[in-house]
Design a protein that fits this description.
The structure holds two protein chains of two kinds. By secondary structure, chain A is α+β, with helices and mostly antiparallel strands. In chain A, 16% of the residues lie in helices and 38% in strands. Chain B has one domain.
């Protein structure tokens, strides 16, 4: 009996030890890699209650903070929060609420307030840039005690109305196929009148966050500018002709680097380029700012598999690329 | 890492895309997102520098000889290959290169028999799994390009060797797959090359 009590006591101590001070939980972002990112949040998150979410980024090998994260689209760390039935979405940053202080830049420890609107399972994806590339970390959170299993019945939709704005998604040439580049376009109208007053929001006419409906395969992209289109044209040409022209690419690169951010797509359409990595149903959150007021459209896209399983005599020639 | 003559220009383009416009100094952003959220490597478990590691190897041998079902065996081959890779990465990140030959041989062994186990006259399920394995080997290469960043200089060549083993077996796997499937891997392969390029630049 005494031994049992002792075990229970130790178990309680261990449980309490898993919480940080002030009953906070610290979650390590996935996947692993050269950077470790943690998210500190209350151990118990209640619906409708504002909480402070704190992210911290360190070098995995030394544990030292990543100093001077690069600013990308006007922010150091981009956070995308969705519940896993995709009825709520936020694109949110520390700098939306407070200017960065020197100690925050040095410690790579940023915070922002957030109110989870409904119970259920949430995913936060955070993106930051260091050493010439961006890194993405995923965090899972549970909110409230009821409806912890997110149930959703997403149907393909290419039209969405938010406030008095309607966004309509169309594809340039074909139904999206996994692994194949696809050009899409979103047409935006206000009270059925095409808009012509789109503004840059965080450095781009559009910010797009995409998940497959199982919460996997997050992607983040922006408006498909003419400069990017030119480069993709070069890539397509290279693929077809197997020719190399590094000088041409170098010139394009220098031209692009010398261009300041500029508003190109004032409306009503914004093109987007994407490659869906796997087949399935995807949820696309399309954020734009007509008249400078950011709104988010949601579209549901069916992506077909890339390959047909052919009978053996129909297999393509065994050309390895 | 081997690269064909035609890959040189593509590498330039992709570096250019990644390094050019502010806001495009990165992976993702619509171009490089093929490997977001992919399953990472499993926990290594018993390691080659542990005395009882030979028991682990014996169990693997028994398991691969005791299953009759073709698809089950293939899954075992991939599982064990991944374990070897996880062991290798863990050791290399610890700057322990003493067992690299054993790891490389084991990793190559399982991937070789896996890639040789597929045939032209196989079921749809097996062809699906062959495609999955090809996907997974690209993911191995990508994961290696990330894990190498944290490693000591002395370990880089061993990471490259593991990458080459994956790459060689990837080429064997896709040899009899459809043109559609091979084409769908174009951007994924380029992303792997780009990821390695950035990793080795930062070395």
């Amino acid at each position: 009996m005494f031994r049992c009590s002792k075990l229970i006591f130790v178990a309680i101590l261990l449980l309490l030890g898993s919480c940080t001070e002030d009953n906070q939980q610290k979650i390590t972002g996935q996947p692993p890699g050269p950077y470790k990112m943690t998210l500190t949040a209350p151990h118990r998150i209640e619906v409708g209650q504002e909480v402070i979410l704190t992210t911290e980024i360190t070098h995995s090998d030394t544990g030292m903070p990543v100093e001077n994260l690069r600013t990308l689209h006007e922010r150091r760390v981009h956070n995308f929060i969705t519940n896993l039935d995709f009825t709520n979405f936020s694109h949110i940053h520390h700098e939306d609420f407070n200017a960065l202080k020197a100690e925050q830049i040095e410690s790579a420890k940023l915070s922002f307030p957030y109110t989870f609107p409904t119970p259920g399972k949430y995913r936060m994806v955070s993106e930051f840039t260091d050493s010439k590339r961006s890194w993405i970390k995923h965090f899972n959170l549970e909110v409230g005690y009821s409806a912890l299993i997110n149930d959703h019945h997403l149907k393909k939709t290419n039209t969405n109305t938010v406030q008095n704005y309607t966004g309509t998604l169309s594809f340039a040439s074909q139904t999206p196929i996994a692994g194949a580049p696809i050009e899409m376009e979103v047409y935006i109208s206000r009270d059925n009148v095409p808009v012509s007053d789109l503004k840059l929001w965080l450095g781009s006419e559009a910010h797009v966050a995409i998940w497959r409906d199982d919460g996997k395969y997050f992607g983040h992209t922006h408006a498909y500018t003419p400069a990017m289109r030119q480069m993709m044209g070069g890539l397509a040409h290279q693929k077809k002709s197997h020719a190399t022209n590094p000088k041409m690419i170098q010139e394009m690169m220098l031209r692009m680097m010398s261009q300041p951010s500029e508003l190109i797509f004032e409306g009503p359409t914004i093109p987007v380029f994407y490659i869906f990595p796997q087949p399935g149903k995807y949820v696309m959150h399309f954020e734009c700012a007509p008249n400078g007021n950011p709104i988010v459209f949601q579209f549901i896209i069916n992506v077909l598999p890339s390959a047909k399983i052919l009978p053996t005599h129909e297999h393509a020639a065994n050309e390895i690329q | 890492m081997k690269s064909s003559k035609s890959d040189g220009g593509l590498k330039y383009i992709l570096l250019a895309i990644s390094l050019a416009t502010p806001g495009y100094v990165n992976s993702g952003h619509g171009f490089f997102n093929s490997f977001e959220g992919v399953p990472w490597l499993p926990e290594p478990g018993l390691m080659p520098d542990q005395f009882v590691y030979f028991i682990d190897e014996a169990i693997e041998k028994f398991q691969t000889s005791s299953y009759v079902d073709s698809l089950v065996i293939k899954k075992k081959y991939l599982t064990f290959a991944e374990e070897k890779l996880a062991e290798g990465v863990a050791l290399l990140k610890d700057s322990n290169t003493n067992h690299h030959v054993r790891i490389e041989n084991s990793y190559a062994h399982y991937l070789t028999i896996l890639s040789q186990s597929f045939s032209e006259n196989q079921s749809t399920d097996e062809t699906n799994y062959q495609q999955y394995c090809a996907d997974r080997l690209l993911q191995h290469m990508y994961i290696l390009s990330i894990e190498v960043i944290d490693s000591d200089r002395s370990a880089v060549n061993h990471f490259l060797t593991l990458n080459e083993i994956a790459s060689e077996n990837y080429r064997k796997l896709i040899k009899h797959l459809s043109r559609d499937f091979i084409d769908s891997h174009f951007f994924k392969k380029e992303e792997v090359k780009w990821s390695w390029e950035i990793a080795l630049e930062s070395d």
